[in-house]
Amino acid sequence: MMAATRHGNPRFARLTAQEFRARLPEALSVYVAAMNYPSGTAEQRAPMWLTHALRAGWRCMAVLDNGDALIGLAYGYQGKPGQWWHEQVRRGLAASQGEQAVARWLGDYFELTEIHVRPDCQGLGLGEHLLRGLVDGLAQRHVLLSTPEGTSRAWKLYRRLGFTDVLRDYRFAGDPRPFAILGRSLPLDGPTEGR
Hints:
The protein is α+β, with helices and mostly antiparallel strands. It has a single domain, classed as Aminopeptidase, CATH 3.40.630. Helices cover about 35% and strands about 25% of the residues. The protein contains 7 helices and 7 strands, in the order βαααββααβαβαββ. Helix 2 packs across helix 3 and helix 4 runs antiparallel to helix 5. The longest helix is centred in the middle third of the chain and has 14 residues. The mean pLDDT is about 90.
């Protein structure tokens, strides 16, 4: 059961690409707050997020407070060769585990690109509801994501939902931080290892 926030009882909604574009400044504000990034980060991310919304299989879940303000969101799309994240993960996976691991994980997957909840609304189960709503009914075999290494609420959520290690301590081009690539089979309530 999910607790009410100080903003009332949250409402979950699937956003269309048009609704997402209209709420982009609000969504980026949630992202910057949740990640504790400098405010200029929003302007850098905006074009990328708009491009993501044009990709095949894109979908977005949002959580709104009683005043219809965005307090959390999650989005992703069908992962494919040629996409930056796909190519980065493919390179790391091939180097560390070989082509069989590449085929297993990257052959048919949904990339959970972003999932964020405003800091004052974290710890109430909103992230789990967002993630479950986002991947519900997907046709892909797997869902994959990347997250900075280190203990966090996000890590606890992913582990609780059965995400396993795909690639650890990976460094994406242009970012010195180590990341973990995590994945699991779909549907979310199904087995945690590949189907």
